[in-house]
Amino acid sequence: MPSKIIKREAYIRDLKDYVNTDFVKVYIGIRRSGKTSLMHNIIDELKRDGVNDENIIFMSFESREYIHINNSEQLDELVYKKVENLEGKIYLFFDEIQQVKGWEKSINSYRVSIDSDIYITGSNSKLLSGELATLLTGRYLTIHVYPFSFKEFLQYKNEIEGVEITKYSIDELYEEYFNFGGMPGILSLGSDEFKRLALKDIYNSILFEDVVSRFNISNIDLLQRFSRYMISSTGEIFSSKSIKNYLKSNDIYTSEDTLLKYNEYLKQSFFISKCKCFHLKGKKEMKILGKYYLTDHGFHHALIEDNILKVTKILENIVYVELLRRGYKVNVGRNEDKTEVDFVCEKSGKYKYIQVSYRLTSEQTLNREINPLLRIPDKYESILITTENHDFSKDGVRHLNIVDFLCGDDV
User: Fold this and answer.
1) Is 45 exposed, middle or buried (0-12, 13-18, 19+ CB in 10 A)?
2) CATH of the domain at 69
3) Which of the chain's termini has less CB crowding within 10 Å, N or C?
C-alpha cells in the first residue's frame, strides 16, 4: 500500500451511492494520476465499515506479484481460488486491468457468479469502448481520475509534509503547483531537478507503455517529436498540416494521417485532452479542429525550455483541467465576429463563460479580454481569471484571482 496518500474526498463522495451495488466501478485516467491510491482510499473506508481483510482482494497487474497474469484464463484461476472459501460479499480491486488479455468477460463473470463489489482501473480511454461496454450496458460507473487539484495539493502539503496553510504559504505553494503540476508521485521529491526528472520518467512511461507498446509504433523518434510539439503548442489550434510542415522544415517527412493517429493515441492515453470549438450563437460544437491541453501542465515545464513565453497558455491549461474536475463540459467559444472566448462551460444545461489572462497591464488589455465576453448574446455569467489581486470586475464580468478560483468552489 502507498505509504503517503491523502483521502480524495471528492472521489469518495461521488462513489458513495454505488458501494455494495453490482455496478462495476471503473476508474480511468492518465498513468500515475493516483488511481491506485484512490483504490486504497476505498479499501480504508471498507475496513472502517467493518469489512474483513480477507474479503478484500487487491491485484495490481504492474506489481511483481501479478505481472505474470497475462490472460483471462490465468486471472480466473487465481480469483476463483482466492474466493472459494470466503463467506459474505467479496470486494475485488483490479489495478491497470488492461494488462490482462480478455479481462472483459472475466469481470462480467465475477459480477454474475460471485457475491462481489468490483473496482477496476485503467490508463486508456478506450477501456470501455469494446466488449465490456456491451456486456455491462447500464451496469458500470466511469470515474475520471485527474492529477491533484490545487486543493488536493495543499491537502497533501498539510497532511503529509506538515506545511501550515496560510495566505502566505498558499501563494508560495501556488508557484510550485504552477511550475510542476499535480502528479501525486512527484510531490515528495525535494529538488526542482528531481521533480523534472520524475515528470520526464512519467512522460516516457506513458509514451512507451501506453502508446508505443499498445499500438506497435515503430517510428519512436517521430512520435517523440510529435508529442513534444503538442506539449509546446498547449492551448493552440491543432492542425496536422502545420505540424507536417514544421517537421518537413526539419527534414522529417510523414503523412497527415500518421500525425492524426499519433494525436488519437496520446488522447487515448489521457496525456492530452481536446477542447472543441463551440458556436456561441448557435449553441453547438463546430466541426473545425479545437485546442489541446495537457492533463497535467507540469509536463510542459519539465520537457519544454521556453516556459517563460507560455505563461498564459499554462494558466489556461490549469483552468481547463480544473473545470473538467468540477464536472463541466468545456469548449472554446467563437462569436459571430470570430472573437474567441477561452472556455464555454456547460453543466445541466446552464453555461458559464471564462476568459483567462496572466496579467492585465492596462485598461486596453482589460477591454481586450472582456469584449469577447460582452458580445455573447445570452446573459449567463461571465468570468475573467487572472493572477492579479486587484478586483477588475467590469460591465457585469466578474474578475477572479487564479488562487481564489482554485481554492474556491463558486464556479
Assistant:
1) middle
2) 3.40.50.300
3) N
Q: What cell was used for 282? A: 448557435
401 phi, psi to nearest 5 deg: -75, 145
The one-letter amino acid at 25 = K
Whether residue 1 is contained in a domain is answered as: no
Do 238 and 138 share a structural domain? no
Buried b (16+ CB within 10 A) or exposed e, 193-205: eebbebbeebbee
What angle do the packed helices 240-249 and 220-232 form, to 10 degrees? 120
d(CA 156, CA 167): 16
At 321 the pLDDT is: 98
Q: How far apart are CA 125 and CA 128, in angstroms?
A: 7
Residue by residue, DSSP assigns 17-52 as GGTTSSPEEEEE-STTSSHHHHHHHHHHHHHHTT--
For residues 104 and 197, membership in a common domain is answered with: no
- The amino acid present at 337, given as its one-letter code, is D
How do 291-294 and 284-285 pair as beta strands?
unpaired
CA distance 39 to 236: 35
CA–CA separation, 343 and 334 (whole Å): 10
pTM summary value: 0.94
> What pLDDT shows up at residue 307?
60
pLDDT along the chain (411 residues), means of 10: 79 91 92 95 95 97 93 96 95 93 90 95 79 74 95 97 94 95 94 96 96 94 94 89 84 90 95 93 78 96 77 96 97 87 95 95 92 90 96 96 94 89
